[in-house]
Amino acid sequence: MAKEKTVFFCSNCGQESIRWVGRCPGCGEYNTMTEQKVAAAAKPGARGARSTAHKMRPVRIDEIPAQDHARRSTGFTELDRVLGGGLVPGSLVLLGGDPGIGKSTILLQVSGALAAGGTRVLYVSGEESARQIKMRAARLSVDAPELYVLAETQMEAVLSEAEEMKPDLLIIDSVQTLYCEALTSAPGSVSQVHEVTGHLMRLAKTMGCAIVLVGHVTKEGAIAGPRVLEHMVDAVLYFEGDRHHQFRILRAVKNRFGSTNEIGLFEMKNQGIVQVDNPSEMFLSSRPEPVPGSGVVCAMEGTRPVLVELQALVTTTSFGMPRRQASGVDYNRLILMAAVLEKKMHLALGNQDIYINVAGGLRLDEPAVDLGIAMMIVSSFRGKALPMDMVCIGEIGLTGEVRGVPQMERRLAECVKLGFHRCVVPKDGLRGVALPDGIELVAIEHVGDAMELMM
């Protein structure tokens, strides 16, 4: 029998240490090292040691047969887009999000849609009983004979049922609740999560069934448990949004079978999660009449152009240090735009509080919204409202020049589709662009041109 030894694992990143330290040498966090007992590895040649007689031989890449993965649609086109076209058989997907955001709800709806089409689904819950899942399924109108529910937390029992049942889709809710009997540590610990994920990964690759893991998140928004968990799975999806609001955003941060730039937009209603087919129309549905500091920008989320309302509020500060606050855009971009306006346009923003907000809860990360941020700040500062049918697109450099952005044709087509007839764009961004009909373009080269146009 192998002798047990004690090691210390970091609960944040999974760093291993033979003794306790106050600060993790891997991630630098304090008081995250937890003591756990692990069995010592068997020596080579000893009884029970893994044999190395059968090795995999290297194969030339041109001799490897190509295999097209037949993706399985989840019933949600928005979820299929984020996954790259649907669930791939044999894939391991990790879904994370804040408590109450709707992870279990959307997975139960996906399970019902797939099971109604003849796909065998096994839903394993370690947090709820079978009756609780039945109550939620009745509220969501989910009733399919091929949907099986298992309330179990022991990993060996889950593997036994899965091997006997051979489901096409296995859902684990959640991975932090499962435990292996071979380990003495508590469920949710670093060693347990790593071991459970390893068993599920081997199950997915050998049986060819798609497995979706639900993962809890920390207060910083990262998946709870070792960081290596995200490296083991094939795709990592984050369900974002405020649980007190109705809109949800599904974003892929890792995907071995598709792009990581796509997002899916959903809405929480009484009947469950409902996908939003036209995000631009939804974000602009409650836009008020022309008011200073409010305008529309066009951002690219993956391959999809999205029109959103950008709001700015500039007011005289009551303190010695003016305040800058950004919601939905990068805080550093706000500081940069304020500095450019103060230096190049001679605006007295040194004693002004500046607040920027993206209506609808969407987060914009690309620099194409720089021109919109600058124009909204000036609009609120000067008290001049922008026309309702105007859209701002462009990146601003430190010298005040307005630079072109990619995929201009798709952005302009989306503007025309939603009834916007005037667009402020960079002049050098129109080279080789097929302009759509029904829109007036105002080409500018410097941020000063946009300010003159607005004033």
TrEMBL record:
Residues that bind ATP: G97, D98, P99, G100, I101, G102, K103, S104
Residue ranges of every copy of the RecA family profile domain listed in the record = 68-217
GO CC annotation: cytosol
Q: Where is this region: Lon-protease-like?
A: 353-455
Q: Does the record bear Metal-binding in its keywords?
A: yes
Gene Ontology BP terms: recombinational repair
The UniProt entry's sequence similarity note says:
Belongs to the RecA family. RadA subfamily.
- Domain remark from Swiss-Prot or TrEMBL: The middle region has homology to RecA with ATPase motifs including the RadA KNRFG motif, while the C-terminus is homologous to Lon protease.
Output this protein's name: DNA repair protein RadA
